[in-house]
Amino acid sequence: MEKPLAGDVIQASTTGRSSYATGLDTVYIENRPDADISIPLALNGNSFIGIDGLTEGGEYTYDSQQSAVVLKADYLASVFDARKGNGLLADLTLRFSAGAPWHEYVMKSGVPTVDADRLAAGTRENGLDIALDFAGNEFKSITTYQNGNKVGPNSGWWKYLQNGSAVVVHDNTADHSLGSVTLTPSFFADATVQDGQITLEITFQSGKILELTVEISNGVARVQTTI
Questions:
Q1: Whether the Cβ atoms of residue 114 and residue 126 lie closer than 8 Å to each other
Q2: How many helices (H) and strands (E) does the chain have?
Q3: How far is the C-alpha of 69 from the C-alpha of 21, rounded, in Å?
Q4: Burial class (CB in 10 A: 0-12, 13-18, 19+), 164
Q5: Quick one: DSSP state of residue 10?
Q6: Cβ 103 vs Cβ 55: under 8 Å
Q7: Is the predicted pLDDT of residue 8 greater than 80, yes or no?
Q8: What residues pair up with 29 in beta bridges, in sequence order?
Q9: Quick one: pLDDT at residue 175?
Q10: What is the residue-wise DSSP string for 100-159?
Q11: What is the C-alpha to C-alpha distance for residues 151 and 210, in angstroms, rounded to an integer?
């Protein structure tokens, strides 16, 4: 999901401080909600005004003592039921007495999986494209292991592969559905990456983790199985 709103916050910060949610800017919901969800705010001296298109006391309430917006279970269940598949349920615009508005996204998400129908073998020379169904989850990080040790560029001092060099994540759909993770030739060229089994641990912003195994042999790399 593209979020081209950071510039608004930066611009507003030149004349004052903006308010924002203290956690993630996305609420992930896997099952039909039966309880309210609280979103704590950092007001930075501002006052909370409201949420565009929603009615306070109906779809949400505001806890002034805790500086938190509370999305009501009935409202969340209604937007959940309105969408049949995974993806964006609501883009909520929170407004304040000063600064830029804050966007909080409500996302229906499932369990990320390897898309076996789109898998193909790769090579050390050209890299390996691993097709995924993100199931409404936003990518966070990836770590690779071999024989219990971290492998890949910079693995001696950094836990994660660098997106854009050792790995490229293709997750540009608004609903975080079909995409891929590509292990690049730079990853396979690293001296720590030997023939054999590589375990990929892919972590998503929702907290979900997808683990899979890549088998490397004679310059060919392919997804062997999911764990």
A1: no
A2: 3, 18
A3: 9
A4: exposed
A5: H
A6: no
A7: no
A8: 108
A9: 75
A10: --EEEEEEE----EE-GGG---EETTTBEEEEEE-TTPPEEEEEEEETTEE-STTTTT-S
A11: 18
Helix (H, G, I), strand (E, B) or coil at 201: strand
Non-local CB neighbours of 35 within 8 Å, separated by 6+ positions: 73
CA distance 163 to 165: 6
Q: Residue 65 — φ and ψ, nearest 5°?
A: -70, -35
Q: Are strands 196-204 and 139-146 parallel, antiparallel or unpaired?
A: antiparallel
Tokens of 4: 């081209």
**CA diameter of the chain:** 64
CA 84 from chain centre, in angstroms, equals 20
**pLDDT for 225:** 60
Q: At a CB cut-off of 8 Å and minimum separation 6, what does 65 contact?
A: none
* 52, HSE (Cβ side, Cα atoms, 13 Å): 12
C-alpha radius of gyration, the chain, whole number: 21
- In tens, the pLDDT along 151-206 reads 999 999 999 999 999 999 998 677 788 899 999 999 999 999 999 999 999 999 99
12 pLDDT higher than 60: no
